[in-house]
Amino acid sequence: MAEEHLKRELGLLQATMMGIGGAISAGVFVTLGYAASLAGTALLIAMILCGVINLFTMLSYAELGAAIPSAGGEYTFAKVSFGGFISFVTGWFEWISNMFYAAFCAVGFAYMVSYTIQAAGLPLTASVPIIAAVTVAVFAIINVKGIRETGGTQTLMVVVLLGILSVFTIWGLITGQRTGPLQISAAGDFLGLLRASAFIFVVYLGGEAIAVAQAEIKDPCTNIPRAILLTCLALIAIYTSIAFVVFRIVPPGDLAGKESPLAYVAEQFMGPLGAGVVTVAGSIAALSSVNTAIMAQSRVAYALARDGYFPRVFYRIHKDFGTPCLAIAAGAILIAATAATGVVNFVAYAADFGFMVGFICVNLSLIRLRMRKPNLRRPFRVPLYPLPPVLGIVTSALLMLFIEPGTLLIGIELFILGLIVYCIRMVRYYRICLAAGGMNFGVSAFSALLALIIALDPVAVPMPHPMALVSLGAAVFVSVAYFIAGLLNITEEKGRAN
After folding, report:
1. Backbone angles phi, psi at 10, to 5 degrees
2. Euclidean distance between CA atoms 47 and 42, whole angstroms
3. CATH code for 12-403?
4. Is the pTM of this model over 0.70?
5. What confidence tens digit (pLDDT) does each residue in 103-127 have?
6. What is the distance between the terminal CA atoms of the chain, rounded to a whole angstrom?
């Protein structure tokens, strides 16, 4: 099921860097403070727990991606396994989540730029909406130019980011400055640990971008599983080591209320220069996630348009760059508009909910496909099946219970919006015209009968003569107007049908 239109130009290194860069967003630089208030030093356990939960589902991504290396990621998996409405819902939430994730990261970068300008005392005014919109526009252009440019930019940013985080971690491990022996203890009960896990789970999101770009990865049967598993293991090691250094240097209580806890910790043992460098790393992390999310949403829109759920123009490929340029542009406009609102909580919650829905659907798709197509060629198979996908479904659903209550309402609203889009696309344009024509004829007939009653049976409709004339004229006008509208709809439907 290889895509014929998208170019396979990403190697193992670029695919892995895309996964790591898509996951390490600005979130890890700002979420540690609140997460530590929920779990204390047990946040180390929460980091590992989230990594293991992520690994359960990523194993399903690895098997499905190697077996079905076609554009669309979760949507394509659900399409092959279930089809119909379930596949559309999976793709819908995947598309929405990546757009919200890109907007969230763009706003995060804009706030970092604004904070840096203010801290430096520069005589400049930084507009967060403008910075966020310009950031989205720049990376949309990079994405349009080709997956090679996207992957190359991503690789460079992630290498620099990992270099800075490595310096932070190693320096933090060898420095003599510490709070004392590190003891793992939870700030609250076990529920606090679960709430912290649900809150920081967002830092593991983005690795699924490998599956979204699987139609552009070389040797997909080998490189897709390797890139996904390398990304998972790398993220667990990176986040756990960062959390260990943080709690080695400062107690959890000192992180409360800090806008950038990681920069605060760096300042304690690296000085102001270290805090500045870590802030630069946070900016790079935000930019890399914007880059990956813009790419991911466009490939999902491309796949949905391929199957008729989205407008066909999203399926067009640029003849020179080989990218779905219109899908990239349309998504970038929506991302920039969302980012310009500055509603950070909304986009974060929507992205979180959508990705968890996607995780559940991917695991269900794996189970369904194992039953329906047992002889399908699977270059990679999930070990200990069916335990990992079942655990992936259960743990993802469990975490959904501990995120903000408003997230559920946001998810329901997005589901209803998706249902409307699905119904409109499935009935097709000619059926909409036919239905509109029928309704117009119905209104026309009703108005004509009402006019006839007013004209012929004044006893049944007692009213003053002037008012009767006005009502008669209005009824006749409505009847004629809706009759003409019905004819136009039916005529257009027949024209399109022919």
Report:
1. -100, 125
2. 9
3. 1.20.1740.10
4. yes
5. 888 887 877 777 677 666 665 666 7
6. 32
